[in-house]
Amino acid sequence: MRKVDLSIEFCGLEFQNPFLLASGPATARSEMIERAFDAGWGGAVTKLLGLKTRPSPHPYIAALTFEGKAIGLGNIDSIIYPLDDWLQKIENLKKRYPNKILIANLTGDADTSSWQEMTKKVQDVGVDMLELNLSCPLTGEERTIGALVGQDPKLTFEVVKWVKEVANVPVMVKLTPNVTDITSIAKAAEKGGADALSAINTVLGFVGIDLETMEPKPSVNGTSAFGGYSGPGIKPIALRCVAQAAKSTKLPISGVGGISTWKDAVEFFLAGASTVQLCTAVMFKGYHIIDRLKGGVSDYIRDKGFNSVKDIVGRVLPKLTSIEKLDFTYQVIPQVDKSKCIKCELCRLACRDAGYEAIELDEENLPIITEEKCGGCGLCAQVCPAGAIFLKQRR
Q: What is the value of pTM for the model shown?
C-alpha cells in the first residue's frame, strides 16, 4: 500500500502532521499538551496568555442540544493566563518534544510595549510560533483586546506591525468571524507583515435559556453574557472565512471552527487551509480522536491518487465564484433509487411544504417525481435519510 505523507511545511516549520490543538480548554495546562503530543498531535496552541490576567466566571460552558444530544458549546470562558507562569512550561515542553510545534496564543493592550514584551519573552524560551488573538469575542468593556482589535483593519495592521518589529519566529493572526468583511482584516494582517492566518475564532452567540428557571445559559448565579459558540454548527462559517482569506491573500492558513471528523479536515484543506485546529471535538471525545483523523485523511489522499496533504490544499478555490457567474442554464432533476427507499415520506413532505409539490407516492408508498412540476432545487435529495434520491442533469 502506498504511503501517504502527512507532514506539512507551514511558515517554514515542519509539522509531523497537520492536526493541532486549538487554543482552549484542551491546552489549558502543559501536562495536557504533553498527553496530546504523546497521543500523536502535530502541534498545540496554548490557552490565551497575557501580561494582564483575567479570571473566568463559573460555570462558563453550556451545550446547545438537539433531541437530547449536545451538538455545540457556548462559552463565556474569559480567562487570560499569566504569561510569566507559562515561560518555564513552554521551555520544558520544547525540550521534551523538540519535534512538536508549540504555538503561543497571545493577547495584549492596543499599545506597542505589551505586544513586544510578550513576543520577546515567549520566543526567548523556544516557542515555535505566535498566534495573535485578535478575535476572542469575550473582550469586556475595555475595548482594547480580542475581536475589538480584529474588527478594525487599522488596529490589526498596527498590532501585527509592532509584533513583527521584534519577532524572530513566525507570526500568525487569528481572525474573528464577527465582522462584515473578513477579507479586509486578512489583508490588513498581511500588510502588517503576518506570516500566516488562522480562521476562525468562536462566533459571538447566546446559546440558550433554561425554560424552568428562565435564566440564560450558562447561568452564573442567575445571570450570563453573550459568549463564543463553537462546534459543528460554525463549520460553514469557518469554511467560508478560510476560502475568502485564501483567495484574498497569499498567506498560509490554519483552519479552525467546527472540525470534528477527518472529512471536515479534508474540506478545510481543499478550501485552502494547510493545517487545521480542533478544540470542541476534543472536549467532547478526547485526544484519542487524532488516530481517526490521521487515518481518514491518509486513506482519502491515497484513494484520490495523491501523495501528501499539500497536494490537495486549495483545490476547490478555483471552483468558487460569485452567484452571477454560475451557469444558470444548468438544470437537474431528482431520480429515485427505489431499492434504497425506506418509505419515510420525508421527500414528499419537504417538496409539498417547501418545494414545488412535485412528489407523489405510488401504490407501494414509493415517491414519484413529476418532472413538469419539479424546479430542481435539490431539497428532496438533502432530506432523504437513506440516500435514495440523487440529482441528474436534466436533458
A: 0.95
